[in-house]
Write a structure and sequence with these properties.
Elements: H1 3-29, E1 39-43, E2 50-53, E3 58-59, E4 72-73, H2 87-96, E5 106-112, E6 115-120, E7 125-129, H3 134-146, E8 152-157, E9 165-172
Parallel strand pairs: 4-5, 7-8
Antiparallel strand pairs: 1-2, 2-3, 5-6, 6-7, 8-9
Length: 177
């Protein structure tokens, strides 16, 4: 076999391989998709604030929303490794589940005596304990906050969501928009 015939055969095989890849494999194997994380909270304030995704990862590249502002975690500095852990992660899980209607009224979260506590913009404390049954706990808190007979209180305890409790008279309920 002559050298020219071998080169021509290799060129044909390469052309077929490129065509198969281009029209067959490439079209079904590459689906560009960008997932934008849902931000649940921030660490820090102002221009130094960093978003925290619902899973606990720090998100430095995504701009923070202006309205409503995201609730703050009570951490003094950014955690090492690019994600929150331990009690801060429990707080993020609670904040990630805030119903959209209540989001404008949530100011911050911190670790209190009972576990995760969330402070509303009017100073009312919502006591969660941990992030289990967080959907039920938020529904229980919303039920108490929406009760027209309740006009002032200091805390809402939803650690046991089927038996929520509340008390105090120092803080007014958030205004309904």
């Amino acid at each position: 076999m002559s050298r020219n015939r071998i080169l021509a055969a290799v060129a044909v095989v390469l052309a077929i391989a490129v065509a198969v890849y281009w029209f067959g494999v490439r079209a079904g194997s590459a689906d560009p998709h960008v997932t934008v994380p849902k931000l649940a909270a921030t660490i820090g304030e102002g221009d130094e604030a960093v978003g925290v995704a619902a899973g606990g990862s720090l998100v430095r590249w995504l701009p923070l929303p202006d309205e409503p502002p995201l609730p703050r975690l009570s951490l003094e500095e950014l955690p090492k490794g690019g994600r929150v852990r331990g009690p801060a992660l429990e707080q993020v899980r609670v904040l990630a589940a805030v119903p959209a209607q209540l989001r404008p009224y949530v100011a911050r979260s911190y670790s209190g005596e009972s576990g995760v506590d969330v402070e509303l913009t009017t100073g009312i404390e919502v006591r969660f304990g941990n992030a289990t049954q967080v959907g039920q706990k938020w529904r229980a808190a919303a039920t108490i906050l929406a009760d027209p007979s309740v006009t002032t209180l200091d805390y809402v305890n939803v650690i046991a969501p089927r038996r929520p409790s509340f008390g105090g008279s120092e803080h007014e309920l958030p205004a309904v928009p």
